[in-house]
Amino acid sequence: MSAMFVLGLTGSIGMGKSTVAGMFRDLGVPVHDADAEVHRLYGEGGAAVAPVAALHPEAVVDGAVDRRILSSKVVGDETAMRRLETVVHPLVQRAETAFLAEAFSARSGLAILEIPLLLETGADLRCDAVAVVSAPAEVQKARVLARPEMNEAKFMKILSRQIGDGEKRRRAHFVIDTGAALPVTAKQVEDVVLALAGRPGSAYARQMGDGHGAAA
Ligand SMILES: CC(C)(COP(=O)(O)OP(=O)(O)OC[C@H]1O[C@@H](n2cnc3c(N)ncnc32)[C@H](O)[C@@H]1O)[C@@H](O)C(=O)NCCC(=O)NCCS
Ligand SMILES: Nc1ncnc2c1ncn2[C@@H]1O[C@H](COP(=O)(O)OP(=O)(O)OP(=O)(O)O)[C@@H](O)[C@H]1O
């Protein structure tokens, strides 16, 4: 088998990352969801609970991080958000490495890293190519504002910390349109999988050091 290809999947808030990740999974492609990992890390017994408690004791309730409280402490406070990221991102990356090793052992030809801040954090350097999900701004806004606990001010604050959709699209190898009907998007996901079938990647081998992760 040739070396596993690592595809980074990203997009701004509400653009449809999770939905598209589900479509890749339906095609049998393993996906690591950084957001879901953060949820695990914040849950009871999660590795981020103690370090978050050290930063924001009031945000830990019954042994787990309360995201609503944590959100009120960090969204809009750049210093607090950065401090939180310094704690959380290395833990997410540790889980990601374990996921890639497992996908590689399972002889998967393609593995996906779904990371909201892929381009912002330089995680794209750990990928062979980048896919961006994108929809018109008004569609994005309507989707996000329909969520509970969301309002326009919070939406704007989150957006301001993310690279704009236009730049994301420019930096993408694949743009997946999530503004249309779901089956249209699903077809584009299929096309990406077909385009990458049999394409050897080098990102995983690079991460693991010479001699690992290459042809097996
Ligand atoms: C701030 C927190 C508590 C808000 O939690 P909440 O459940 O309300 O929102 P959720 O996590 O679903 O995020 C909503 C949107 O904000 C975006 N977002 C999340 N963290 C960040 C961040 N650090 N910078 C910019 N955007 C962010 C997400 O991509 C998503 O589009 C939470 O997002 C968090 O702990 N973030 C820090 C960890 C992180 O960077 N996660 C993102 C990728 S690993
Ligand atoms: N063609 C489409 N592709 C993707 N999502 C779509 C499409 N049409 C409608 N939607 C809806 O848009 C919403 C996208 O939300 P989703 O949680 O997938 O976005 P996200 O980018 O993961 O969000 P976040 O950045 O907040 O984590 C879902 O409710 C989904 O059903």
Task: Give a brief outline of the structure.
With 216 residues, the protein is α/β, with parallel strands linked by helices. It has eleven helices and seven strands. Helix content is 52%, strand content 13%.
Question: What's the level 1 CATH class?
Answer: Alpha Beta
Bound molecules: dephospho coenzyme A, adenosine-5'-triphosphate
Number of helices: 11
| Structural class by SSE content | alpha/beta
Which architecture would the CATH scheme give at its second level? 3-Layer(aba) Sandwich
Oligomeric form = single chain
Give the H and E element order.
EHEHHEEHHEHEHHHEHH
Structural notes for this entry:
The chain is of the alpha/beta class. It has a single domain, classed as 3-Layer(aba) Sandwich (Rossmann fold), CATH 3.40.50. It is 52% helix and 13% strand. It has helices at residues 17-26, 34-42, 49-55, 67-74, 78-105, 118-121, 137-145, 152-160, 165-171, 182-196, 203-208; strands at residues 5-10, 31-33, 60-61, 64-65, 110-114, 129-134, 174-177. The strands form 2 sheets. A 5-stranded parallel sheet has the order 2-5-1-6-7, with helices on both faces. A two-stranded antiparallel sheet has the order 3-4. Helix 2 (34-42) packs across helix 5. The longest helix has 28 residues, at 78-105. The model has no long low-confidence stretch (mean pLDDT 94). The chain binds dephospho coenzyme A (COD) and adenosine-5'-triphosphate. Residues 13, 34-35, 38, 67, 70-71, 74-75, 81, 84-85, 88, 92, 116-117, 158, 161-162 line the site of dephospho coenzyme A (COD).
